[in-house]
Design goal:
This protein is mostly helical. It has one domain. It contains ten helices and no strands. It has helices at 2-10, 21-37, 43-65, 71-88, 97-117, 123-144, 153-178, 183-189, 193-205, 211-227. Helix 1 (2-10) runs antiparallel to helix 6, helix 2 runs antiparallel to helix 5 (97-117) and helix 3 (43-65) packs across helix 5 (97-117). It is globular.
């Protein structure tokens, strides 16, 4: 889908040179470990481990690069984290150790991928190139587990739509947003993911709208808004 989009827009295929080896490695590790982790974890537990790993990784990178949170930013971050915990922890169970470790690696890889992505000047083509470089190793991994592969027509169609629409266009939007965010701000913004997913479940899947969901979503989104009122004390350059 990304390749088609690049062709329609620029009349050429994605250029392999747009991809950065470290970005390709980071996104592939994220996808691979994420997939295997969720064979051993529930949705809520997996999301909690993933988000925690992403936030910790990006905060550590931001601190090493010299970014600093203001008191207001720390306050907003704390409120948002509390909202995430309130939404996910009550439904979470003790995680499988191996599943949790795999998800932690996946979250760490996504944190690095996000930081690397801030330097992309052509997000659409860059994402297409990164994904194309992931095709061969992904194929090799699938061949190793070929005897365990099964699927239905509906499942294959939904998987393709997930990759083409949710992932493809989602990565483009995220790349565009990262141009205008510091690492610490990008870290906080990602805390909105559980609230957005939960509220989408209410709208599109007729899931119940509970008081816990409302309170947790308000805390997450409100905390993010507070944290983004001011920029960190000292901005940071790209991780090049």
């Amino acid at each position: 889908m990304l390749t088609v989009s690049v062709w329609l827009k620029h009349r050429h295929l994605p250029r392999p040179g747009r991809a950065k080896p470290r970005s390709v490695a980071a996104v592939f590790i994220y996808l691979l470990f994420f997939s295997f982790a969720y064979t051993r974890l529930g949705a809520a537990t997996g999301a909690l481990v993933l988000i925690g790993a992403v936030q910790l990784t990006m905060l550590c990178i931001a601190v090493v690069q010299g970014e600093r949170f203001s008191f207001l930013s720390w306050t907003g971050f704390g409120i948002a984290v509390a909202g995430v915990l309130w939404l996910l922890l009550p439904g979470a169970t003790a995680p499988d150790p191996l599943g949790a470790a795999l998800m932690a690696v996946s979250g760490t890889a996504w944190g690095f991928f996000t930081v690397f992505a801030r330097g992309a000047d052509h997000p659409e083509e860059t994402n297409a190139s990164n994904m194309l470089w992931c095709l061969l190793p992904a194929l090799l991994v699938n061949l190793l587990w070929l005897d365990e592969t099964h699927g239905t027509a509906a499942g294959l169609v939904l998987a393709a739509a997930s990759g083409a629409i949710a992932t493809g266009f989602g990565y483009i939007v995220w790349y565009l947003a990262l141009r205008h965010l510091l690492v610490t701000q990008a870290t906080i913004v990602q805390l909105s993911m559980p609230a957005v997913v939960a509220l989408a479940g209410v709208v599109f899947l007729a899931e119940p709208l509970t008081a816990r969901l409302l309170v947790a979503s308000a805390a997450m989104l409100g905390g993010i808004a507070i944290a983004l009122i001011r920029r960190p004390v000292r901005p940071v350059g790209r991780l090049d």
